[in-house]
Structure formats: C-alpha cells, structure tokens
C-alpha cells in the first residue's frame, strides 16, 4: 500500500553550471519548512551538453521533478526546449522557471516580477517621474526593462559600457527605450526617478566608479541587483548623497515565489525571517 504522504511529495530543482553557489535551496527549503509541506528543492548541476537530456527526462517524468529554476548558462536553452513558454519569456528569449502540467513543460521568467515586487515592497510609490535609468545591457537588464516598461514608465534609458549592446535592447523594445554610452549618464539621470545597476560593478568587494546622483529627481530611488555585499558601493554612494536605496536581496527572494507556488501549490511570503536566513549565509 502507498503511504498517503507519498502523493504529496513534490520535488523541484535549481539547475545551472556551476550551481553550487545558488542560494535558492535555502529560500525554498525555508518555505517548505514553515509551510509544513512534503517536498524537496535540490541543486542539479548540469553541463550544457547534458541539458537537453535533463529536460527530456523532466518532460517524460523519469526524473521525478515537477519543475524547477534555471540559471546561467541554461536560461536561453530552457526557453527553447519548453513546450509552452509564456509571453514574458518569449519576449526575453530566456526562462528561469519551469513547471510540468499534464506532461506539458511550461516556462516563464520571474526576474522582472522579482525586481518590481521588491521595489513595491521596499519603496512604494517609487514611480514618480516616468523616467528610469538602467545601467547595463545583459540578461538581467533585459528582464528589468521589460518589467519597468510593463509598469508604464514612459522613458527608459539604458546606459552601457558597450553602447552597441544597449542599442540592441533599444531596438528590441522599441520607442520607449533609449540607448547610451557611459558618458551620457549625467544627462540621462536628469529628473529620473529610478536608477538601477544591473552590472557587476561593485560586486564582492570590487571597486565601483564614483557616481554623482545629484541630477536625479528629488525622492528618486537607487537600486542595485547585486546583493553581495548587501550595501554595494553604488548604494553606499547614493545613501551618502541623500537618496532612498533598495538592495538587491529582495529581488532574489521575490523572484522565487511564483515558481514555489507552481510546484508546491502555495504562494509563499517574503518576510524578514527569510532575509535573515540568507544574510546569515553570506
Ligand atoms: P547578466 O545576465 O547578469 O546581466 P551579462 O549578460 O554578462 O550579465 O551582462 C553584464 C553587464 O554588466 C553588461 O552590461 C556589461 O557591460 P558590457 O556589455 O560592456 O560587457 C556590464 N559590466 C560588467 N563589468 C563591467 C564593468 N567593469 N564596467 C561597466 N560595465 C560592466
């Protein structure tokens, strides 16, 4: 006879290469435990050569997973191999969350949701000026541009060391998005209500250049998706110059919630206890 609990046991994963630094197991493990759910969330290191096989075993049910998160370098391939990518992942060409429903593999991208949910929770009313400046033009920048655009911000300025990459994003997203090289920062910051760093500048003790945030609008919010250290050199400068700041840890926590709900059936809460658990691990 089957143990009745067996039917409730759901297993999810985070896959990447490497994946050992991922903090997602701590987040989902905390939620499973506080919600008293039977389930697991484990790291699955999969090389690019093995990734198609991993997805095929996921689809067939052989691996026993109900879905999972996907991180570097598999986000684009995950999107391509999914049976039913949603409109968000379709526009980005990348997925970070997969789930099975009746044998059909669905995909979405929750990075933009995580970014906005974190801003909304920490700096409600942030969208005051209709102008945002986004530093960087990689995958994270792309998801954040999409989210900020979908929230209705009218002018989005992407500033990047390699201006051609910023231009690619502007071309992809259309009229609201403008591309610039780094030299344009003082000009595009004028009266902007939101400044986002999506680059690795200032990560893990690395130095960041000096930023003069004074052209930003009064009450502007400066945020960084880097969360090690929690107060990055960019955020520290913004605080010193009198601006409100939002750290990047909340984005990591919030982007995890939609996947958890898909796999385990309950929408989890992002709270201080969870923040403390991740901070204690840093
Ligand atoms: P992700 O997917 O995390 O966004 P990515 O695609 O590697 O990562 O993009 C990294 C971003 O950080 C890019 O915008 C990169 O600028 P380039 O396009 O010019 O490479 C930016 N970046 C990384 N190191 C930087 C540095 N030292 N100075 C300025 N920008 C930097």
From TrEMBL:
Segments forming domain Quinate/shikimate 5-dehydrogenase/glutamyl-tRNA reductase: 128-200
A GO molecular function assigned to this protein is: shikimate 3-dehydrogenase (NADP+) activity
Q: Does the keyword Amino-acid biosynthesis apply?
A: yes
Q: Where does NADP(+) bind?
A: 136-140, 160-165, 225, 248
Q: Where is the Shikimate dehydrogenase substrate binding N-terminal domain?
A: 14-98
Q: Where is the SDH C-terminal domain?
A: 248-270
* Pfam families, per database record: SDH_C (PF18317), Shikimate_DH (PF01488), Shikimate_dh_N (PF08501)
Family assignment? Belongs to the shikimate dehydrogenase family.
Q: What is the lineage of its organism?
A: Bacteria, Pseudomonadati, Pseudomonadota, Alphaproteobacteria, Hyphomicrobiales
Pathway of action: Metabolic intermediate biosynthesis; chorismate biosynthesis; chorismate from D-erythrose 4-phosphate and phosphoenolpyruvate: step 4/7
Q: Which residues does the entry assign to the active site, renumbered to this chain?
A: 75 (proton acceptor)
Under the heading CDD domains, the entry gives: NAD_bind_Shikimate_DH
Q: Which residues bind shikimate?
A: 22-24, 71, 96, 111, 227, 255
Annotated keywords: Amino-acid biosynthesis, Aromatic amino acid biosynthesis, NADP, Oxidoreductase
Q: What does this protein do?
A: Involved in the biosynthesis of the chorismate, which leads to the biosynthesis of aromatic amino acids. Catalyzes the reversible NADPH linked reduction of 3-dehydroshikimate (DHSA) to yield shikimate (SA).
What's the top EC group for this one? oxidoreductase
EC number annotated for this UniProt entry: 1.1.1.25
Which reactions are catalysed by this chain? shikimate + NADP(+) = 3-dehydroshikimate + NADPH + H(+)
Its recorded name reads Shikimate dehydrogenase (NADP(+))
């Amino acid at each position: 006879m089957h143990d009745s609990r067996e039917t409730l046991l759901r297993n999810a994963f985070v896959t990447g290469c490497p994946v050992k630094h991922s903090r997602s197991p701590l987040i989902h493990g905390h939620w499973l435990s506080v919600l008293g759910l039977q389930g697991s969330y484990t790291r699955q290191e999969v090389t690019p050569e093995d990734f198609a096989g991993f997805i095929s075993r996921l689809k067939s049910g052989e691996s026993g997973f109900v879905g999972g998160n996907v991180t570097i370098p598999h986000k684009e391939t995950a999107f391509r191999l999914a049976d039913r990518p949603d409109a968000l992942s379709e526009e980005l060409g990348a997925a970070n969350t997969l789930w099975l429903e009746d044998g059909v593999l669905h995909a979405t991208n929750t990075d933009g949701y995580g970014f906005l949910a974190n801003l909304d929770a920490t700096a409600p009313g942030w969208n005051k000026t209709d102008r945002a400046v986004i530093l960087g033009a990689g995958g994270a920048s792309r998801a954040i541009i999409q989210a900020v655009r979908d929230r209705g911000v009218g002018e989005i300025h992407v500033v990047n060391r390699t201006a051609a990459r910023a231009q690619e994003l502007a071309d992809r997203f259309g009229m609201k998005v403008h591309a610039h090289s780094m030299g344009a920062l003082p000009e595009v910051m004028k009266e902007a209500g939101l400044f986002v760093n999506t680059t690795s500048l200032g990560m893990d003790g690395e130095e960041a250049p000096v930023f003069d945030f004074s052209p930003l609008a009064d009450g502007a919010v400066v945020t960084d998706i880097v969360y090690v250290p929690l107060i990055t050199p960019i955020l520290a400068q913004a605080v010193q110059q009198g601006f409100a700041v939002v750290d990047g840890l909340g984005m990591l926590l919030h982007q995890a919630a939609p996947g958890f709900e898909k796999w385990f059936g309950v929408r989890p809460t992002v709270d201080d206890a969870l923040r403390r658990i991740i901070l204690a691990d840093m």
